[in-house]
DNA sequence: ACGTCAATTTCGGGT
DNA sequence: ACCCGAAGTTGACGT
């Protein structure tokens, strides 16, 4: 069924799976997408639903009269007209007890052309790789995504003295990124071929605690101006 | 305006802010909530919209004819009937160029009674705090959320010999949790008042890599059975 | 399939 | 307001 269904109705919701959750009866927006996913929204909390079921999952709709026959645990709310049971393969379930329905609209949307993004971490890494002078005069990039046993280092560089430097690139520099770079440096500094490897933590923004931790570990911090870098990039495009 | 608005329409979307993104013209589901948030959905990707604007933000709707007057950069798609400009205070914007509208429905949902959850990390921590024998005979809990300079340790305990033990509680134990506990232990072991502090990593599930890293650092791992603990809890309720 | 890491993460709680 | 950590995180990518 390749369509979206939008429902506004009184409903009560019970979820069981990685946790259990309950929503008392109230009027809400229910969206069923072509992928089978179901989400239940209140009129706040931005785009996050109160409760949901991710695809793949299957929905079974039962009239309240029949659902009643199987109900042994508790009385069914008399307002309930039908029960939607949505199950995933992992055993999660979302039970929506639907009362009065105010809107029930189904339509086809077709395939979406998809989203084009610009400005994510990968672009920042690419721009830095093309402009190693951002780190300092005489710096060069040895390799992007330099593989180690525990994962890829974003940029492996050499400084003006030829010393290796591992660069961790983040859009927003937080403590996790420093931990990540620390793990790489610990490993790389056991490799005699590389000699002593220094670390640079490069991000558009660096949180104070991340900077403190980095400094404490002898890692340099570099705040990168994405727009300026992109400008450099465009300037080069014009020159050559 | 305390209401939800559900629109199904042809639209093109342009976002600028922390990154830039573009969606070509296609039929989509647009949801405007009472908090002012706007989200644009395709019929897949579960509950995540293709693009959105989080509250607080303000929406200005302009008929295409007028929007055209201000258009200097590019021709406006002739299918566009009105332009929604949604702006946040931080300068992010979401521009939705709306074409043919298939559905436009607005209604009040009222205040939602809200979601009740059970089984999150806080509950696991509370159950462990009430049942320190889970860690071992003769263990006691000194404090929950024991504050350190770099954040709160989930549980500070004493073992059967009276030695301090820092416990990190997770629903799912992964490498980040081990790093977190390691930072706490590094700090606490500099405090002469505590003496030597050991570490315990307690979770419902522990990933192999997390276990390996923990063991390597002298941190004990404990897999906790949430249901059994809850059972203990209920048993106690009945006994006293 | 699993592990790793990014995300316009979002969301809630504390200081 | 910022900072921190949890989340039913979700999602993409590589092994």
UniProtKB/TrEMBL annotation, chains A, B:
<dbReference type="InterPro" id="IPR048302">
    <property type="entry name" value="NucS_N"/>
</dbReference>
<dbReference type="InterPro" id="IPR049173">
    <property type="entry name" value="NucS_N_sf"/>
</dbReference>
<dbReference type="InterPro" id="IPR048301">
    <property type="entry name" value="NucS_C"/>
</dbReference>
<comment type="similarity">
    <text>Belongs to the NucS endonuclease family.</text>
</comment>
<dbReference type="GO" id="GO:0005737">
    <property type="term" value="C:cytoplasm"/>
</dbReference>
<dbReference type="Pfam" id="PF21003">
    <property type="entry name" value="NucS_N"/>
</dbReference>
<keyword id="KW-0255">Endonuclease</keyword>
<keyword id="KW-0238">DNA-binding</keyword>
<dbReference type="GO" id="GO:0003677">
    <property type="term" value="F:DNA binding"/>
</dbReference>
<keyword id="KW-0378">Hydrolase</keyword>
<dbReference type="GO" id="GO:0000014">
    <property type="term" value="F:single-stranded DNA endodeoxyribonuclease activity"/>
</dbReference>
<dbReference type="InterPro" id="IPR011856">
    <property type="entry name" value="tRNA_endonuc-like_dom_sf"/>
</dbReference>
<keyword id="KW-0540">Nuclease</keyword>
<feature type="domain" description="Endonuclease NucS N-terminal PH-like">
    <location>
        <begin position="2"/>
        <end position="112"/>
    </location>
</feature>
<keyword id="KW-0963">Cytoplasm</keyword>
<comment type="function">
    <text>Cleaves both 3' and 5' ssDNA extremities of branched DNA structures.</text>
</comment>
<feature type="domain" description="Endonuclease NucS C-terminal">
    <location>
        <begin position="120"/>
        <end position="239"/>
    </location>
</feature>
<protein>
    <recommendedName>
        <fullName>Endonuclease NucS</fullName>
        <ecNumber>3.1.-.-</ecNumber>
    </recommendedName>
</protein>
<dbReference type="InterPro" id="IPR002793">
    <property type="entry name" value="Endonuclease_NucS"/>
</dbReference>
<dbReference type="Pfam" id="PF01939">
    <property type="entry name" value="NucS_C"/>
</dbReference>
């Amino acid at each position: 069924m390749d369509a979206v269904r939008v429902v506004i109705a009184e409903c009560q919701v019970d979820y069981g799976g990685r946790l259990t959750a309950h929503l008392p009866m109230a009027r809400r927006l229910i969206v069923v997408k072509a992928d089978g996913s179901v989400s239940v929204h209140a009129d706040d909390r931005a785009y996050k639903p109160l409760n949901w079921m991710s695809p793949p999952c299957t929905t079974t709709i039962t009239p309240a009269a029949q659902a009643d026959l199987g109900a042994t645990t508790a009385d069914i709310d008399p307002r309930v007209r039908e029960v939607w049971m949505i199950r995933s393969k992992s055993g999660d379930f979302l039970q929506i007890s639907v009362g009065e329905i105010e809107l029930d609209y189904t339509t086809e949307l077709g395939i979406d052309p998809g989203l084009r993004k610009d400005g994510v971490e990968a672009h920042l890494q690419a721009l830095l790789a093309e402009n190693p002078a951002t780190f300092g005069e005489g710096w060069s990039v040895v390799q992007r995504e330099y593989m180690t046993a525990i994962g890829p280092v974003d940029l492996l560089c050499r400084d003006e003295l030829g010393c290796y430097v591992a660069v961790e690139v983040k859009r927003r520099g937080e403590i996790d990124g420093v931990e990540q770079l620390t793990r790489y440096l610990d490993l790389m500094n056991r490799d005699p071929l590389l000699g002593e490897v220094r670390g640079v933590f490069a991000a558009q923004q660096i949180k104070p605690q991340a900077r403190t931790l980095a400094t404490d570990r002898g890692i340099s911090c570099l705040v990168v101006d994405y727009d300026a870098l992109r400008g450099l990039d465009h300037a080069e495009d014009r020159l050559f």
